[in-house]
Structure formats: C-alpha cells, structure tokens
Amino acid sequence: xxxxxxxxxxxxxxxxxCASLFSCSGDVEHPAAAVHAEDSLPFMHSRGINTLIxxxxxxxxxxxxxxxxxxxxGRNNNGPSTWKFKKGLLMERFDENFHVDLYVQADTAYLxxxxxxxxxxxxxxxxxxxxxxxxxxxFWDMDLHEMWSHKFIRIITPERELQGNEFRSNETMxxxxxxxxxxxxxxxDTQNQTVPADTTLSATNPTEQ
Length: 209
What we know:
Layout: H1 5-26, E1 44-55, E2 58-72, E3 81-85, E4 89-94, E5 100-106, E6 108-112, E7 116-127, E8 132-141, E9 146-149, E10 153-156, E11 161-170, E12 176-184, H2 187-190, E13 200-203
C-alpha cells in the first residue's frame, strides 16, 4: 500500500525541520585559542648567514649564523622587531678604526627592537685585553651601553680567574663588577688566598680611569 500524499508531505516537512535544527546547532562558534607571537611566521628567514651590519652608516658588526629569523609586529609589519638566532650566533664588533673590540658567541641570541641583546646557552665573550667571560645568560643594552647577568659567570684573564654571580659591565667588557665572588690571584696580589665569597670585585681598564 502506497503512503498517502499528506503522509509523504508530513515526513518531508519533518526531515526539513530536523535538518534545519541540526544546521542551526552547527553554527555555534567555538573560538580557537589566541595566536601567540611564537606561532606566527617570521617576516624574514635566512640561512647560512655571513654578513656585515652597519650602525649609522658605519660598519660595526660581522655576524655569522646558521639561521636568522626576523619577527615584526603591527598590522603592516612596521612595529618593533625581534631578531632570533635560534641555532647560534658568532659576532665581532668593530671600533671606529675597524679593529675588533669585542667577540661574542652564544647558543641562542635575540635582538629586541635593535636595542637589547639577550644571549643564552653557552655564552662566551672576549674583550681587547684577551679576557674571556663565560656564562649561560647575558643581557646587553646598547642604549645604556651596559651588559649584565644574574647567572653564574666565570672570567679568565691572563693573570687570574674569577667566578661569581650578579655581573655588570660596560659594553666593551673592560670595566666590570662581580658580587658573591671567588677566584685565584697572583701571589703578589693576594698571597695566594681565596677571595671571600661576600666581596665585590671590579676590574678597570687603566685607560678609562
């Protein structure tokens, strides 16, 4: 027996109503989590970097890196930028006579807004006096011309070795202070005694006095 026309029409109406119901329930929005800066793609990505960087028209830096990413902010990518060297950075800085006055090496490096360096991992810095600084974290404010670290730091000089925490220096690493320090000094300086741990040590370049 065939169903009547009215029954068929009622079944079709019910099907349309159910489809409409499920369609409306499917329109409910489920907002995704906010996108963070780390999730975005870099404005520029480069590999095999070996380049010279100028400052105010003067060649000041030689940088070598496996990868270099530049992230920008703002709708038109015209906001503050961050340079990221996630696979390490080797950098030499030149003085006004184009002599290398600072050597910098780090496992990971960030340059925020072209003003603040953040160096992490195995950070090694060598100054013009052949003094070597080793730590796991170092900040360098190029506006204030200062460097500092709150991590353990080891300093190796031709005459002595120092180690401690709470390090601060000028940006040439020729005048620096360390707190909670200890180290080995020449006999003529300390009679081969260990520096007490609660002292503050400083080193000054004679030309800066």
